[in-house]
Amino acid sequence: MIDTAPSLDADPDGRMVLRGRWTLSHAGEIGEALREAPEDAHEVDATHIERIDSVGVLQLLRFAHRRGIDFEQFRFRDDHRALVAAIEDVHDDRPAKKKEYGFAAALGRLGYAMVDNGREIMALISFLGENLIKLMRLIKEPSRFRLTPTVAHMEQVGLDAVPLVVLLSFLVGAVIAFLGSTILAEFGAQIFVVELVNIAFLREFGVLLTAIILAGRTASAFTAQIGAMVSREEVDAIRTLGLDPIDLLVLPRVIALMVMLPLLTFLAMVAGLAGGLTVGVFSLEIPPQGYLSRMQDTFELRHMLVGLSKAPVFALLIALIGCLEGLQVEGTAQSVGERTTSSVVQAIALVIVLDALAALWFMELGW
């Protein structure tokens, strides 16, 4: 058999016809033929190629990328298409190019990040709507409610988190009291540290600290649990059985967190006030009876209600982000890790943003 060298014929309409053997033994000739291809070439007919291997396909792919030609427009023989499709699928697995640090590259990365964040926000809003609809369906059809997994998740996200939430809230309450007393001592007004701790923990720190702890602890757990199920194709099996993953996996976690986060917030408030009391008694030498009396005199229920009103919103946000990121896992361990990190970052960032907006809104309303 004659070993025909690779060649191409071009016509004035920008159409190229490839001929010969586009294989490893002719790698140099393939490159030379493609370099001589006319600049206005936009259509490639490869059906006349006698034989082609991975080297030939890769060189055609690079030629298409270099000239900006859509590779989907290349025409191949039927017996070559399987090889071409396989090479096309894996050719992007080459090591990543060295990162560029120029202004244009940074601007490009910023643009891509903005687009990705926009898509994440739209996906979260869509997921919120889907869950609200299915929550309302749950009210109409209580038989869909999964009591056992809901209680199990309440134990996991609530009871197991109590020691951590109480300890950190106690310490932060003590730190706020210490810092406040250091500043107020210059004005001889150390007694006002009681109001400072009360308002800080009842309105903001109690719910914010609890939400941040659960965003790091619970959102990551939800993502890892559901992501592992996705990678093992268990979620696909649930759909194949005609069941709804939202009913089975998402709603029990959402309901459990919406019940437990307000309770944990209340415990965080009590622990934070106890931290302030400890500093007041042992560092500021305020008698316990005096501190408690001052706390009772200055206590306002509206501060606690403002703090507790934010807890269910934060719980819904944290649970939805954790579950959504888990469902978006693409089946590899690396994807599970990336989604877990993303869920924690998103949950903490959105909790802080919403808390700031809520603080401004309540302040404008005079609450």
Would you kindly provide a written description of the structure presented here, covering whatever features stand out?
- By secondary structure, the chain is mainly alpha-helical.
- The protein contains 12 helices and 5 strands.
- It has helices at residues 27-35, 54-67, 78-90, 103-140, 147-157, 162-184, 193-231, 234-240, 245-282, 288-298, 301-327, 333-365; strands at 7-10, 15-22, 43-46, 49-52, 75-76.
- Strands 1, 2, 3, 4 and 5 form a 5-stranded mixed sheet that branches.
- The longest helix has 39 residues, at 193-231.
- The model has no long low-confidence stretch (mean pLDDT 86).
Report the count of strand segments: 5
Mean pLDDT: 86
State the end-to-end CA separation. 91 Å
- Helix % is over 70%
Structural class: mainly alpha
Count of helix runs: 12
* Biggest beta sheet attributes: 5 strands, mixed
Topology record:
Elements: E1 7-10, E2 15-22, H1 27-35, E3 43-46, E4 49-52, H2 54-67, E5 75-76, H3 78-90, H4 103-140, H5 147-157, H6 162-184, H7 193-231, H8 234-240, H9 245-282, H10 288-298, H11 301-327, H12 333-365
Parallel strand pairs: 2-3, 2-4, 3-5
Antiparallel strand pairs: 1-2
